[in-house]
């Protein structure tokens, strides 16, 4: 890893607001951005489209010839929210060899002037030398309503019971998988956004960032 290029990581569970804040901070700093979940969803979409059996040996073979320059959000945003894509991406994240290959791919996003990386193991595994590590959290009910709002905005059908069950399953899988489970590193800044507005989260985050870098 190029330790001369600064990295700020944002980890946390689903619907904790990581992606939104990651993009806003990256724009404010004019830094590069890595949304790790997008990589796994991109891989999931291609696998589903090509009917590749979700067995790790098949995934590894598929990954060897995968060109990540094809990862363009504007091309795949319409299908990414589909539940089957999210579930497949979550399953792929439990494969150890797949994670090792994608670990290298993710570290290649580290470019000047700096990188904002969000996911579930950005500060613990991918970029353990990050200058600032955030861990976002919010209670389950708040995250469920955020997910419902997000899906409605995208014109996708959803309801409280279904979203609640999906987030519970995802939390269980993320927190208890053997490889790179979700947890806050000892040096992470814990930010509970349950009762915070978006503006308040941004203000709090930028306050911590300004302590480390000159803006």
UniProtKB/TrEMBL annotation:
Residues 8-210 form the Cytidylate kinase domain. Belongs to the cytidylate kinase family. Type 1 subfamily. It comes from Buchnera aphidicola (Aphis gossypii). Pfam families: Cytidylate_kin (PF02224). ATP binds at residues 12-20. One of its GO terms (molecular function) is CMP kinase activity. InterPro entries: Cytidylate_kin, Cytidylate_kinase_dom, P-loop_NTPase. Its EC number is 2.7.4.25. It comes from the Bacteria. The keyword Phosphoprotein does not apply. One of its GO terms (biological process) is pyrimidine nucleotide metabolic process. It catalyses: CMP + ATP = CDP + ADP; dCMP + ATP = dCDP + ADP. The keyword Kinase applies. This is Cytidylate kinase. GO terms for cellular component: cytoplasm. It is found in: Cytoplasm. Keywords: ATP-binding, Cytoplasm, Kinase, Nucleotide-binding, Transferase.
């Amino acid at each position: 890893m190029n330790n001369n290029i600064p990295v700020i990581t944002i980890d946390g569970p689903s619907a904790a607001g990581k992606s939104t804040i990651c993009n806003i901070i990256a724009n404010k700093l004019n830094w590069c951005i890595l949304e790790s979940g997008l990589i796994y969803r991109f891989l999931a979409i291609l696998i589903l489209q090509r009917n590749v059996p979700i067995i790790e040996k098949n995934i590894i073979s598929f990954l060897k010839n995968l060109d990540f320059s094809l990862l363009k959000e504007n091309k795949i945003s319409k299908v990414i929210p589909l539940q089957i894509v999210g579930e497949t991406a979550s399953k792929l994240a439990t494969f150890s060899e797949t994670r090792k290959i994608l670990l290298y791919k993710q570290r290649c996003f580290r470019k000047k002037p700096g990188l904002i990386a969000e996911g579930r193991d950005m500060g613990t595994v991918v970029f353990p030398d990050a200058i600032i590590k955030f861990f976002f959290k919010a209670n389950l009910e708040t995250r469920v309503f955020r997910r419902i709002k997000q899906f409605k905005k995208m014109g996708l059908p959803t309801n409280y019971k279904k979203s609640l069950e999906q987030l519970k399953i995802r939390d269980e899988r993320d927190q208890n998988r053997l490889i790179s489970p979700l947890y806050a590193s000892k040096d992470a800044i814990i930010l509970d956004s349950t009762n915070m507005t978006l503006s308040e989260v941004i203000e709090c985050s930028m306050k911590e960032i300004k302590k480390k870098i000159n803006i």
